[in-house]
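tool=predict chain=A
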Amino acid sequence: MKLKKVNGLKGTVTVPGDKSISHRAVMFGSISNGLTEITNFLQGADCLATIDCFRNMGIEIDNTSDRILVHGKGLHGLSKPSDTLDVRNSGTTTRLICGILSGQPFESTLSGDASLNARPMGRIITPLSSMGANIQSVYKNNRAPLYIRPAALHGIHYHSNVSSAQVKSAILLAGLYAEGPTKVTEPVLSRNHTELMLKGFGADIHSVIEEDGMSATAAILPSQTLEGQKIIVPGDISSAAYFIAAGLLVPNSEILIQNVGINPTRAGILKVCQDMGGDITFLNKKTAGGEPTADLLVRTSTLHGTTIEGSLIPTLIDEIPMIAVLAAYAEGTTIIKNAEELKVKETDRIETVTVNLKAMGADITPTDDGMIIHGTGTLHGTKIHSFLDHRIAMAFSIAGLAAEGETEILKNHCVDISYPTFYETLQTLC
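tool=predict ok
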């Protein structure tokens, strides 16, 4: 994909459904009684992997043009898969499904592509094992493939050293099948889609912010039944991020992004953009199923550097590649720290962001837990290596719209993981 500098992006876009919520709606619907109806589901490769996994465990799932119908069989209605569960490139599928599989009366094996099988799974193996789960890394390297055998689970109070919604969710889902209460305390509250949605399905679950004002604890009791729900998936803030950035960076732009999820545990990019001087107006705010949404009106802005750290990081970890591009175009210095989690995404995003921004002429220094970017105000086009990371490909596509000369995104097809129509949508604004 080749991109050139443009002058003015105008129009209205609707971004695909939220990836995290789409995953969870299928999973929770599958272990609930009766029908779960999902609209605005994200038809990306990762979420389709989740559908395929549950179909392989006997769940009938209708993927129609306008909705997903999950015919749930209850908490104990899954059946032994006929083959290895193929999670493809989806870390969310892998980690969350392990919590469910740990409580099943059958053995299972799951594996993904080379990238997925290189990602760390010890962070879920350790807590699930402490609950009594019989889960093993096949090659004994704390990575997939993972082999899970039946086991009796008991509740624990797990103090996580990382704020990760995937880790938290895996433990809470295992807690549905455990004896006694299960609690997860994390250093900073991570995205809370699991807690909100499980409550809607009927689980006995609650969350509290601890007295220190930072750490958070989610607690769940074992359930007898969950009940199917109607889920309307809000637009994915991670997908909206690219059009927010485009509207801020490209001169003479005005973009309206409709029905975007603005859950505060997830929407840190909005705060960062506003802190940098971004002109973003919230319209038509509403809440459905516990998830707040709004239309976002974004206009071209003069941006300045900022510091991004601490409790803000879990709310925008997936958007940091895009934020780094904004910082390169901004005036002054932007410091990103406490973001070690970037190293264990589809790529080491500290490294891949640094490599590509330097290639475009940015002044960027990687650190152990983030990066320091001295904004230059301008970048130049070059060949960008996506490293088959969808967020790298999309972030640097936006960079190319404001860069001098031509920018070429290599292996740009990786955007299919989360946003198959990204380039078509972008073209409508040019």
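Residues 183 and 219 are 4 Å apart (CA to CA). The first strand starts at residue 2 and ends at 4.
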